[in-house]
Amino acid sequence: MMKTEKGYARLYKVYGRSEGEVRDRLRPILKQGGAAVVYTRRRGKEIQVLAETGEQDEERAKAVSRPVAAEIKRALGDWYYSTRENETMEEAVVRLLIKYNLTVSTAESCTGGMIAAKLVNVAGVSEVFREGYVTYSNKAKRKLLKVGKTTLKEYGAVSRQTAKEMAEGGMALADSDICVAVTGIAGPDGGTKEKPVGLVFIGCCVRGETEVEKWNFRGSRQEIREQSALAALDLLRRMILKNFR
């Protein structure tokens, strides 16, 4: 529970979704009355869902808000990454990796090691982090991650196929349970009509099962890289929940 001006609130933090998408999932809950008022707010690049009660006693507030908390969790599913006010995305990911005794590696192009850097900011990550690869050039992608020469020639370095092979190659090379990979165009140059600045593909391989997401980010070069790294960590988190929860 977090202390608010009115009393206490349960908090659910969502990354990578618009406030409209979150509210759509919560629509029946937002309309209902009760001892806890549910609302959303934007904080930077994330959406926060709060179930707030005017109770001044924390234990009483927990009891009053427990029923609606269960509804919020069911509605959001794996969309929320934390219920802890000060927990970062990377802290939530490392917590899950440790909980399920999983090892992770990273394979990065446009993020240039940012994902690995975020992970190693977290105390205790040495238990789960195996290796990080920065494969910025096509040659490095081929040499280290075994991305196919044909793949790069036919689809390009920034493609769903390349992200998939980067994740699979990184997992095999590091002998980790999971590998998350990112390839994209951070700008400000290098974009085309077919592949604009901000186009990013994120792949995550979990013991042979790979998913790839396509994103179109906006902002400066640094902002696109930051958004890419956070989206990669969020995909990693959701893949852990999907396969091990």
TrEMBL record:
Species annotation: Candidatus Copromonas faecavium (nom. illeg.)
Annotated Pfam families: CinA (PF02464), CinA_KH (PF18146)
Domain CinA C-terminal: residue ranges: 87-239
Protein name: Nicotinamide-nucleotide amidohydrolase family protein
SUPFAM superfamilies, alphabetized: CinA-like (SSF142433)
CinA KH domain location: 10-81
PANTHER family: NICOTINAMIDE-NUCLEOTIDE AMIDOHYDROLASE PNCC (PTHR13939), NMN AMIDOHYDROLASE-LIKE PROTEIN YFAY (PTHR13939:SF0)
InterPro entries: CinA, CinA-like_C, CinA_C, CinA_KH
